[in-house]
Write a structure and sequence with these properties.
By secondary structure, the protein is of the alpha/beta class. The chain has three helices and seven strands, in the order H-E-H-E-E-E-E-H-E-E. It has one domain: Rossmann fold (3-Layer(aba) Sandwich), CATH 3.40.50. A five-stranded parallel beta sheet has the order 2-1-5-6-7, sandwiched between helices. It has a two-stranded antiparallel ribbon with strand order 3-4.
Length: 135
C-alpha cells in the first residue's frame, strides 16, 4: 500500500516526510525511503533527544501535546505529512500548524485510511488531503 502512496508523489520534489506518532512512523519512513526524502518524527512530549517545538491541541476528551525537533524543517522545504488513519483531524491539525509555523510548505497530508463520517478532512488545508481507503 505504501507503494501506491509513493507513486502519487514521485516527481513532486518532496524534501521531507513527517511521520506522526506512532503508526505514522512506519508509513512515513517507507514513503521517505521510496521518495528519497528525509524523515521527520512528531512525537509525544519528552521522547525526542534534542531541542523541540511543541503544540498542545484539543481532543474530544481533553488535550494532548506533540513535539518536533526545532531544526527538523527549514523554511521553504516541501513537506508530505503521513499517518495511517484520518479520524477527527485533531492531531493532524496540530501537525499542520507545527509544519507551517516552522516555514514548511505542505504538499499534502496522506493517509492509508480515512473515516469519512468523522469529517476530519474539513479541519485540514483544502485540497491537500489524500487517503487510499475511505470508510
Amino acid at each position: 500500500m505504501v507503494d501506491l502512496l509513493a507513486h502519487r508523489y514521485i516527481g513532486q520534489h518532496i524534501d521531507k516526510v513527517v511521520g506522526v506518532e506512532a503508526r505514522g512512523f512506519i508509513v512515513g519512513s517507507a514513503l521517505a525511503y521510496k521518495l528519497g526524502a528525509g524523515i521527520v518524527l512528531v512525537r509525544k512530549p519528552g521522547k525526542l533527544p534534542s531541542e523541540t517545538f511543541s503544540k498542545t491541541y484539543d481532543l474530544e476528551y481533553g488535550t494532548d501535546t506533540l513535539e518536533i525537533h526545532k531544526d527538523a524543517i527549514k523554511p521553504g522545504e516541501r513537506i508530505l505529512i503521513a499517518d495511517d488513519l484520518l479520524a477527527t483531524g485533531g492531531t493532524m491539525t496540530a501537525v499542520v500548524d507545527m509544519v507551517q509555523t516552522m516555514g514548511g510548505e505542505i504538499v499534502e497530508c496522506c493517509f492509508m485510511a480515512e473515516l469519512d463520517f468523522l469529517n476530519g478532512r474539513r479541519k485540514l488545508p483544502a485540497g491537500k488531503v489524500f487517503s487510499l481507503l475511505n470508510f
